[in-house]
Write a structure and sequence with these properties.
By secondary structure, the chain is α+β, with helices and mostly antiparallel strands. It has a domain of 80 residues. It is 54% helix and 12% strand. Strand 5 and strand 6 form a beta hairpin. Helix 1 runs antiparallel to helix 7 and helix 9 runs antiparallel to helix 15. The longest helix is centred in the C-terminal third of the chain and has 34 residues. The two termini are 27 Å apart. About 2% of the residues have low confidence.
Length: 357
């Protein structure tokens, strides 16, 4: 039994000093990104905010988006309609520029600011460490190791120590020697944030291994579930204008992705609520080839259960599913891995010095 305990301690130690570093970086960048909508809105009111936006009709927004896309046809890469903190229409051009327009008057508002670029870079670092191709696997694998091994071994050692006196395991003693203070801090932060960190780490792994997650979640699919809303829908032919301007009253168009080459497709992405709201994330996506034929159609209304569940990983990961309190919890939890890394290293260093003596 003593040997098992020693092995578990070693696993906890070396994972803490390796993937714990990655988790700390990912936690810090994620914590800052939680407030990206509010910070960007505050810093970029001319680009992102519109007076009396609630009075602008959905049809007006769609007409403006299509007009601007056609006006700039040939150079357009993506068109983003009002979504989250953005009440304006933005167009990404093939030359790399991003320009913003009023959703009603279509007036040019300006080019992408440094603060918007900063948060886009921050998100890339959060998801990939800025390393092309392999970075996302470092982040995703570290998140899963953090979830299934680092946190669980930490809980095992906490339980072995305090199972007969749980209140002591939840109590922080402030007036103690420095080495004991670091241990207490590590213990308390670890146990109080165990569940939030487990959830954040597990959902974080999804963004790297989404195919594996969806495959595992397929056990929740019903055998008689109709995944597509009838084969007839796939036979429909749309002009891009019809596809953009049609409304079903349920979903709001949030983005149009243009083909990258002559064989590419148009992607239209929709969202149930344009702006941040607590609750389930409901989406819809259409793909049209360049002749207007509907190639794929997915929607929360008739999608398979594994895709419905997978769609919730983002709002859970960032806390939006629980509203402002959920986001605040994710923000605080994002800072905890760094606290655990520092205090854990302090405890380890103190133990090494004691053994040397």
């Amino acid at each position: 039994m003593q040997q098992i305990h020693k092995i578990i301690w070693k696993i906890h130690l070396w994972l803490g000093l390796s993937c714990g570093v990655v988790a700390s970086f990912s936690g810090l960048t994620g914590a800052l990104y939680v407030w990206q909508p509010e910070i960007n809105s505050l810093l970029n009111p001319k680009l992102l905010k519109v007076e009396d936006f609630s009075k602008i009709k959905e049809k007006t927004i769609l007409n403006s988006a299509y007009f601007l896309a056609v006006k700039n046809e040939g150079g357009v890469s993506k068109v983003f309609l009002p979504y989250r903190e953005q009440q304006t229409i933005s167009i990404n051009y093939k030359d790399g520029k991003t320009l913003y327009y009023h959703p009603k008057t279509r007036v040019f508002l300006g080019e992408k600011s440094a603060s918007i670029t900063f948060f886009e870079t921050l998100l890339k670092l959060h998801r990939t460490l800025g390393i092309p191709t392999f970075g996302k696997y470092i982040i995703g694998t570290s998140a899963l190791l953090f979830c299934f091994f680092l946190l669980t071994t930490g809980f095992y050692m906490w339980w072995k120590t305090y199972k007969n006196n749980l209140s002591k395991g939840f109590t922080m003693k402030w007036k103690v020697k420095k080495k004991r203070f670091h241990f207490n801090l590590h213990k308390v932060f670890g146990i109080y944030f165990l569940l939030p960190l487990l959830v954040i780490a597990f959902t974080g792994g999804y963004f790297t291994y989404h195919k594996t997650y969806k495959s595992a979640l397929s056990i929740f699919n019903s055998s008689d579930k109709v995944v597509l809303d009838g084969k007839a829908k796939q036979e429909k032919i749309f002009s891009l204008e019809e596809a953009v301007l049609q409304t079903d009253g349920k979903y709001a168009l949030r983005a149009i992705y243009y083909p990258k080459d002559s064989l590419g497709v148009y992607k239209l992405r929709y969202i149930k609520d344009r702006f941040i709201k607590a609750g389930f994330r409901k989406t819809k996506e259409m793909e049209l080839n360049q002749h207007g034929k509907l190639r794929t159609l997915s929607s929360f209304d008739f999608d398979s259960n594994n895709n419905r569940i997978a769609a919730q990983f983002y709002p859970i990961h960032i806390g939006e599913i629980a509203g402002i309190l959920g986001r605040f919890l994710v923000f605080v939890s994002g800072l905890v891995p760094l606290v655990l890394l520092i205090t854990g290293f302090k405890v380890y260093s103190a133990k090494r010095k004691r053994l040397k003596k």
